[in-house]
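Encode chain A's predicted structure.
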Amino acid sequence: MKPNKNYSSLKESYLFSEIAHRVADFSKANPDAEIIKMGIGDVTRPLCEAVVDAMKKSSEDMGQAAAFHGYGPEQGYDFLREKIQSYYKSFDVTLDLGEIFISDGAKSDLGNILDLFDKDNTVLIPDPVYPVYVDTNLMDGRKIVFADANEENGFLPMPQDDVAADIIYLCSPNNPTGAAYNKDQLKVWVDYALKNKAVILFDAAYESFIIDPSLPRSIFAIDGADKCAIEFCSLSKTAGFTGTRCGYTIVPKNLMAEDMSLNKMWLRRQTTKFNGVSYVVQRGAEAVFTESGLKQTRENIAYYRENANIITKALDELGWYYTGGKNSPYIWLRCPDGMDSWAFFDKLLTEIGVVGTPGAGFGKNGQNFFRLTAFSTHENTEKAMAKLKKLFS
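Encoded structure for chain A:
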């Protein structure tokens, strides 16, 4: 037996594991200290009433012979796919039902989609970036090229003609920076991918936080994207499914690699390696897209937006540079006084008990930046920002 030695290229500790380790050590040494967590992007609002009611009813169905469901279709039940199809139509994107695949979350599919691509492909990934993009490609041994995201370009890098890439990762609104591409910028990326016969892996997990009507909610709002892009989305932040697990991936039927259909390849991959998302969870997800479900989940998103407003107002008062917070639940700030991000992390943890995410964990361009999330409670967000202002005023 020989191991996959590409794993030796990974950092020893996953970013959030290191954060948890440092917080645990501090809490052990200071058992009475209050900790306010604003680092990992987990939600705090419960599932909405429409979702809970749907899951209760479907659970009861599973206890009745006439309504029982066993193995379901690996690509998802039509009742949910049709709801997603209608949801995309609401922002002028038309999808074929066979292009929609239900998953247990965007993170899984972002890694699993790599089964479709040769390991000799060159991958273009923005820096800073969600670590999963990098780590999953390192595990496969692919060559990675980074696109610099920085203050000069508003953390929205654009393609360079002298860089050839086969697989391109884009996330908008972005994790960790909160920055979002407009239609003109995404059109440049689509044209670049078509020119280079590349594929864009577009992470739209935070599309529901977009309030600016000029910003696209989907890569498929861009002409030509159906020939060069795959889109991943999740109900984790949209509807609080972090503990329930459901998302969806859009693989267009027009998307070809040489003479092979990526849609057919993904269907084959899923029917071979994936047993699908449970009936109960898919009924809950269906309820998200009902009139009452959309209303209730949007109320939760508005709650998180208010937290983002509290954070950005505090940063404005301190005069600190940041991106995000308007069309995204993430706020990406420059560390004060030239501090590096882990030093800033330790300062906030040990002096005011606030936990964020060091930008260095997202790449070299995050070395002097820090991510805060809007997924806490109003009370804790206000308390954390009051402590922050007092510490640095």
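The radius of gyration is 21 Å.
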